[in-house]
Design the sequence.
């Protein structure tokens, strides 16, 4: 059964973005208006998908058409609990990123807003592709708009930042392409048929052969750079700091998650044995990254860079959840993807709003903001508490599930990862202590109107609701992701290290 | 260890759970207040005046008073029904296919007593605050936090499972952070808030790992299921879990080595110190250990550790209090010291005695802090003891409340502290902790000395400052009087059973902790021990009077004897943490930022690109535009191709 909803989700922003991009420069204001309208419609479409989605493990709304039959390449889309959350996040975040950029883009606003639409199409396509060649195509499509968005509208050191970003991600992409082709060849050798359909590829066990390990690391490299995992992360602080902040908001909220998504969609199900073998080492690397980024965050003087490092630290925890790979840790991983997007995204937006008013993000120049901008301070503190995992807010649920999964599996690793409780509190609260509290600096004293405008509070309201509601009412998300999570490991015939917490009691 | 576990199983089966919507209502009352006040505060941020103080006071006090009445009503129903436990499941918080974590509330005799005390004292402190915070621009913000705190504290006490308890546990930490740094424009106060939260997070790190390991072992988070399955856990695991939960308790209850945040927490408004940092939140560690008594009953080694830490903390903090000149700092160290007492009690297995001391301490320490608040208020924010003196005629009610509370904390009968302190000392002796009994007695002597020093320097002698004194307003007097009466009288709830007197509170909590009967021949022994501890207290009081009760008392000249220096340096904990942890961590952070990131990690990339560049130089030299050289390349290429072709023609060679 073919449904065109998913195609619509991809091609609506893709085609309209391409058309808008071609319009002459003088239509900037109209293009901006149209782009926001398109993004809003897209968000409605994704919510339709969310509501019609059935809580079941298999791919839904699938669309399968032959594309290059001689090589078995298909146009094949589908959505499950894994991709659903990413789609909804992407469409909502795109609208918010556009609204946050509304008055901020003076240079060629038309191109800026149409590039965001293309970026959105790339993100959604990546999350929906079931064919690996198609996946690769969208994976690359994601990169190009970002290149221009940072390179044209970024900060002072944007060229340096974007070059580093492109070199890193292109290196990853190249290996990804080779791995996809080699995987196809392997499949051809084993079955005599060509396919890049993930569902077919899942059926052929790769085992622990050296070629499987090679392939695993080929895919993993691309994904780990995208996440990014220490020590492949240095593109991130530069890119995040130099990108226009609404774009940083999209990069951290959505694009970083595509690396995690790749691990979950491709690496885990295709190479379960290899993952099982390397999981301890990968877990330790993830934890090192978690701690390393947290410590580095302490030394930052640029608020945006500090939050960028906190983002790396959180993603270390999320990756640890992937490599631990039991029911609890995977539930936590998927939950935390949303949490991290919401809380960190809101923090980036707040920094953006602050910078547009004061012209600086330097902690040393700011101080005592809570006096001049109490509502700003309240929202910033709320997001801080969500980000450091205070129970009752959403961040706790994800951290709790991941750490529960890790600790019940490997207590020592759990203890190492749980230091995030201490580190995150230290760098975030020390940040707020320095720039929200304390005596007002000259810069803060001389600026009037540092407080958020009502429409900006309105923009942030969805985030406020999300951190509170998702902190106490977890069922709507967990019910949709768990059926997919329970599919892991796909290879039921091998004994893995998976120990589900509490299993003994309930069965 | 006392023998209580044998009873649990029998009593446990006899428990009748009764659902009641009043339990969520107890939680909802202060939460609703916090939400309403929070919105009021946010709506008024742009105005120079905050919302009307009268209205804010009414809304703020309504929640706590209502909660007090509701918990009182439930408490009365529990009288005479030892097996009655109230319970209410709220909703499913986190549900996956391996567990269903439901938020549930339970009111048994332990939480019943705690809730009644917290709501009652909380209400009084709300009333007191309305006068203390009068005229502050943050008036409504203050009460938002205070109501929110009460909600989190009640969540902590009422939760029927460890994760819900942890939610309240961190919630009170957040409110404590917000209230310590309430006057946030002062960088020191803001820093004290951060310090409190981060140090507490060290404890929470242990706490949450303990929860995970416990879940791994028994597959449940709620106390009933954990208790049922506790015997199935291996001893090693049990001890590890007990230790991890203890780390959490050490953080929240400011015990060595995590005590450093509490003295700094005095940066908050004084009623906050009374409510959060004396009467309620800091006793949560004692509550946690008592709540998990069925675990700690099985881990005597961890119990001994708790006694040791508690004893050391009690003595250390009491000795530091001797040299403090700030009235709130004396009380802060006194609180740390008294919490050490409580830890000694629960560590020795005397949970009822520990909770009894939590209960009496809440009254007299809240009275002391509120009294200190009244004095500070009267003297226009003066906190130095040496600038007080002679205030008794001017602040009669405060002098009364602080006077009786000083007698109570010093352990003078029949004031409240005497009975609870003596219960703990008796439990230590009975369980063969003779050394720590001695530590307890010594601490009692020190406590009597520094508390009378505080009282005499504040209220007796001649006035040493000339500022005009504000009299206490009614809203301050009423809580002071009620708490003073409590400090005098609540001790009768726990008369020493060893003397054949009725110990109501111990009996009250038998359904939770199990019955504990004093040995028959304990009368003389316990009387003798009481006389010893009383003499220690008496000696402390006499020494305080002889040293400070004179008209021309002077602050001691700067004194460089090593003991004073060590005490003034608070045994060097802050220094050690600063040089042992904070500074190295910051240096590591700088190292990451300045060296490792740009040079090592990025360096590898840069070197990679350099190598690429050098290689390209080599390749480039091959194509400098000399046509003759190109001719040679062509020739070499053709020869190679020819060789290759002939090689392929050889039999047995395939591509």
Sequence:
């Amino acid at each position: 059964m073919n449904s065109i909803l998913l195609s619509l989700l991809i091609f609506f922003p893709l085609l309209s973005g391409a058309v808008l991009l071609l319009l002459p420069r003088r239509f900037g204001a109209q293009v901006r208006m149209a782009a926001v309208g398109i993004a809003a419609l897209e968000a409605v479409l994704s919510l339709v998908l969310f509501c019609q989605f059935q809580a079941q493990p298999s791919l839904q709304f699938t669309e399968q058409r032959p594309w290059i039959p001689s090589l078995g390449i298909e146009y094949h889309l589908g959505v499950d609990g894994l991709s659903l959350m990413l789609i909804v996040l992407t469409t909502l975040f795109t609208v918010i990123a556009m609204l946050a950029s509304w008055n901020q883009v003076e240079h060629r606003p038309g191109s800026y807003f149409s590039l965001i639409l293309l970026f959105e199409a790339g993100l959604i396509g990546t999350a929906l592709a079931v064919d690996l060649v198609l996946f690769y195509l969208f994976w690359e499509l994601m990169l190009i708009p970002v290149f221009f968005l940072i390179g044209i509208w970024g900060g002072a050191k944007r060229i340096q930042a974007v070059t580093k970003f492109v070199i890193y991600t292109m290196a990853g992409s190249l290996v990804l392409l080779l791995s996809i082709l080699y995987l196809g060849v392997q499949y051809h050798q084993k079955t005599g048929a060509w396919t890049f359909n993930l569902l077919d590829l899942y059926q052929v066990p790769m085992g622990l052969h050296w070629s499987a390990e090679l392939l695993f690391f080929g895919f993993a490299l691309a994904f780990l750079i995208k996440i990014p995992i220490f020590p492949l992360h240095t593109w991130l602080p530069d890119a995040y700091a130099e990108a226009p902040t609404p774009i940083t908001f999209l990069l951290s909220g959505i694009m970083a998650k595509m690396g995690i998504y790749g691990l979950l969609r491709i690496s885990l199900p295709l190479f379960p044995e290899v993952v099982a073998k390397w999981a301890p080492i990968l877990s330790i690397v993830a934890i090192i990254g978690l701690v390393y980024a947290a410590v580095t965050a302490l030394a930052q003087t640029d608020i945006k860079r500090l939050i960028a490092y906190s983002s790396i630290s959180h993603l270390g925890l999320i990756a640890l959840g992937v490599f631990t790979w039991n029911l609890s840790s995977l539930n936590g991983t998927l939950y935390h993807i949303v949490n991290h997007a919401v809380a960190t995204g809101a923090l980036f937006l707040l920094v953006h709003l602050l910078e547009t008013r004061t012209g600086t993000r330097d902690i040393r120049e700011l101080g005592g903001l809570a006096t001049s901008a109490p509502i700003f301070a309240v929202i910033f503190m709320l997001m801080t508490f969500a980000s450091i995992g205070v129970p009752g807010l959403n961040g706790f649920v994800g951290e709790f599930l991941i750490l529960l999964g890790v600790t019940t599996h490997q207590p020592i690793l759990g203890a190492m990862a749980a230091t995030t409780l201490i580190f995150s509190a230290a760098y975030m609260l020390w940040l707020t202590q320095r720039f929200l509290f304390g005596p007002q600096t000259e810069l803060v004293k001389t600026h009037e109107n540092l407080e958020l405008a009502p429409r900006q509070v309105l923009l942030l309201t969805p985030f406020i609701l999300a951190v509170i509601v998702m902190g106490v009412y977890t069922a709507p998300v967990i019910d949709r992701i768990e059926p997919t999570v329970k599919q892991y490991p796909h290879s039921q015939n091998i004994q893995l290290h998976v120990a589900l917490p509490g299993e003994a009691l309930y069965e | 260890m006392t023998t209580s576990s044998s009873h649990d199983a029998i009593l446990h089966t006899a428990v009748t759970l009764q659902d009641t919507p009043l339990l969520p209502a107890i939680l909802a009352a202060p939460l609703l207040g916090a939400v309403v006040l929070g919105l009021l505060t946010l709506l008024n941020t742009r105005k120079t005046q905050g919302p009307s103080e009268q209205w804010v006071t009414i809304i703020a006090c309504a929640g706590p008073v209502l909660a007090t009445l509701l918990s009182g009503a439930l408490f009365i129903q529990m009288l005479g029904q030892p097996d009655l436990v109230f319970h209410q499941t709220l909703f499913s918080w986190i549900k996956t296919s391996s567990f269903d974590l439901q938020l549930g509330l339970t009111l048994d005799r332990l939480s019943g007593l705690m809730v009644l005390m917290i709501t009652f004292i909380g209400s009084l402190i709300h009333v007191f605050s309305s006068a203390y915070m009068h005229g502050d621009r943050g008036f409504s913000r203050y009460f938002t936090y205070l109501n929110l705190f009460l909600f989190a504290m009640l969540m902590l006490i009422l939760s029927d499972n460890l994760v819900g308890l942890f939610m309240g546990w961190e919630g009170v930490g957040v409110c404590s952070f917000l209230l310590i740094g309430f006057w946030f424009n002062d960088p020191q106060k803001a820093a004290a808030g951060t310090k409190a939260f981060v140090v507490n997070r060290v404890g929470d790190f242990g706490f949450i790992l303990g929860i995970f390991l416990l879940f791994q072992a028994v597959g449940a988070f709620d106390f009933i299921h954990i208790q049922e399955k506790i015997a199935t856990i291996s001893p090693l695991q049990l001890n590890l879990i007990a230790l991890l939960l203890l780390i959490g308790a050490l953080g929240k209850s400011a015990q060595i080595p995590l005590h450093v945040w509490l003295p700094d927490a005095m940066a908050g408004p004084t009623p906050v110190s009374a409510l959060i940092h004396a009467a309620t939140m800091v006793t949560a560690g004692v509550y946690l250990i008592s709540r998990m008594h069925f675990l700690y009953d099985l881990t005597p080694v961890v119990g001994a550790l708790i006694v040791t830490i508690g004893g050391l903390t009690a003595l250390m903090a009491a000795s530091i209090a001797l040299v403090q000149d700030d009235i709130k700092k004396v009380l802060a160290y006194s609180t740390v010291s008294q919490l050490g007492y409580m830890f000694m009690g629960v560590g020795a297995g005397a949970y009822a005695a520990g909770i009894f001391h939590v209960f009496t301490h809440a009254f007299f320490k809240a009275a002391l802090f509120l009294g200190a608040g009244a004095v500070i208020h009267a003297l226009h924010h003066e906190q130095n003891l040496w600038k007080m003196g002679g205030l008794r005629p001017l602040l009669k009610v405060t002098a009364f409340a602080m006077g009786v509370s000083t007698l109570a904390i010093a352990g003078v009968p029949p004031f409240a502290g005497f009975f609870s302190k003596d219960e703990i000392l008796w439990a230590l002796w009975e369980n063969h902790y003779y050394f720590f009994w001695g530590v307890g007695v010594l601490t009692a002597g020190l406590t009597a000395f520094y508390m009378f020093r505080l009282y005499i320097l504040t209220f007796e002698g001649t006035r040493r400052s000339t500022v005009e004194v504000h009299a206490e307003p009614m809203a301050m007097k009423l809580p002071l009087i009620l708490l003073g009466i409590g400090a005098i009288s609540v001790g009768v709830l726990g008369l020493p059973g060893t003397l054949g007197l009725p110990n109501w509170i111990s009996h009250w909590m038998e359904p939770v902790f199990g019955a504990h009967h004093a040995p028959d021949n304990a009368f003389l022994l316990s009387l003798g021990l009481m006389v010893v501890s009383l003499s220690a207290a008496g000696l402390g009081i006499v020494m305080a009077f002889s040293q400070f009760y004179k008209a021309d008392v002077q602050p001691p000249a700067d004194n460089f004897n090593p003991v004073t220096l060590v005490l003034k340096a608070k045994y060097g904990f802050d220094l050690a943490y600063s040089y042992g942890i904070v500074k190295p961590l910051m240096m590591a952070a700088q190292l990451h930022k300045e060296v490792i990131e740009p040079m090592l990690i990025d360096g590898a990339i840069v070197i990679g690109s350099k190598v690429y560049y050098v290689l390209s130089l080599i390749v480039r030299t091959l194509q400098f535009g000399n046509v003759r050289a190109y001719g040679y390349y062509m020739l070499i290429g053709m020869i190679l191709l020819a060789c290759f072709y002939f090689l392929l023609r050889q039999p047995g060679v395939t591509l």
Residues 158-191 of chain A form the longest helix (34 residues). Chain A has two domains: 1-270, 277-507. Chain A touches chain B through 66 residues (CB under 8 Å). Residues 490-507 of chain A have pLDDT under 50 and may be disordered.
